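Entry for the shared binder. Reason: the reviewer on the internal report wants the predicted structure included alongside the sequence.
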Amino acid sequence: MTGELLIGVDIGTTSTKTAVFTVEGLPLAEASAETPLQWHGPGEVDQDPDDFYSAAVKTIARCLEQAAIDARRVVAIGVDGQMAGVLGVDRDWQPSMPYDSWLDTRCAADVELLAREFGDELVERTGCPAMVNHAPKLRWWAREQPQAFARTAKFVMPSGYVAGKLVGLWSDRAFIDATHLHFTGLVDAESGSWSPELCTAVGVPEEKLPDIVEPSVVVGKLSPQAAADSTLPAGIPVAAGLGDTAAGALGAGVVHAGQLFDTAGTAAVLAASVETFRPDQSERTLIVMRGAIPGQWFSLAYLPGGSLLTWFRDAIATSNGAVSDLSYEAMSAGVDKVSPGSDGLLFVPHLGGRLLPSEPAMRGAWIGLNQHHRRVHLLRAIFESVPYEYANYLRVLLDLHPELQPKEARVVGGGARSRVWNQIKASVLSVPYIRLDRDEFACWGAALVAGHAVGLFGDLACDAIRSTAVRERYEPVPREHAVYRRMIDQYRVVVDALTGPSRVLTSMQADYQEQTREEEAI
């Protein structure tokens, strides 16, 4: 047996991906499995935590089988996952509640209350403004589902749940890694510890919160049951792991200040690597997150990204299947022929609420429609809306970090395959866009952390850089950026103007749904 191998598991919003790597970062096998969203109504969505575990072990087994890998060569496993939702486990590590997805906005009233009563303190302590994340979700569960809240021994994240189940943890050893802390709303970010004051203010007993650990801590070894489920030998060390954004950034070699990291997936995330913790107290747009590298922070914000294209296909596609193919290449067809600015058309992408700054009642719109616009104009406006939102993130970032010089944006995820979208982003933001010569970044980031946990890697930053190579580079086009600067200004005006009407319409919809439920109950 020669050549150690590492496994990285990435628990995404709609699928789980697993990859097996050599210590040099060469992927030997990759597999994915669906982790379905369960929609119960507008803004009501959860997932079965055991779907995460099942998808993880199935994809591990599939990787080993497809590449005929000797499982005895695997020396460590790392797991990363989606971050803003939360789930609970009982004493025996059984789910006490579904995974409350980051897409679920039932806690909107709690977000507003926390913003109103504790907004400044939340931002200053946690680095994250009041938004749809753990604290308001837990308030909602305590109020609306008190039995589930009471039987929860610990609240954990998807990556922590899967890692814990892989090694057979009980609730007394539940953990959360430091890269998730910003989303809890219950932490003192700089010290990396739970805040008793915030726990009391939010109404979450501190004893229901897990231990805080670093990503490279070994939380246990693969249990006999998980070994049988995954076809691996028992006893393989499993690292605590990390959040998917931190994992993707590490896997993409985003380790120096001034590098931007664009996750073009179901969610569109723009993160900037910085060296200091500076919370966004004035605009409450940017979150400050710990990175995988010691001393590294990320200022970031996000919105729905690839999910907008799914919606467009399902809602706007014609009966003859004009947009039936959701590949980025197919969806991009003809978009490059439309002028920058989509011939005066703007799209507001907040179909289910604006995440940052938090405005759960916000809804989407096309503004500027005329009789000459066609489907391809609507689609280009969707592509442009994401970097318009990113431009606002960068404006806030540079106010907080005037010394920062954005060098490049490294883009990962399914959207990174779209040359049209990469070029639009580069020109909107006036920053070169880099597509790397690798397809799986979060899995590799999780594997890097696992390798570090067992001593294979000494310097995560150096090893991350070593394992990345540039595939394509997209330079900003100055004349296009000149158009986009004006569109960005108008985009901000439009979004601000839609806030009031969106609140009224959302309230009307909620009233109608409540009335319908009451009538059906009679």
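Summary line for the report: The radius of gyration is 22 Å.
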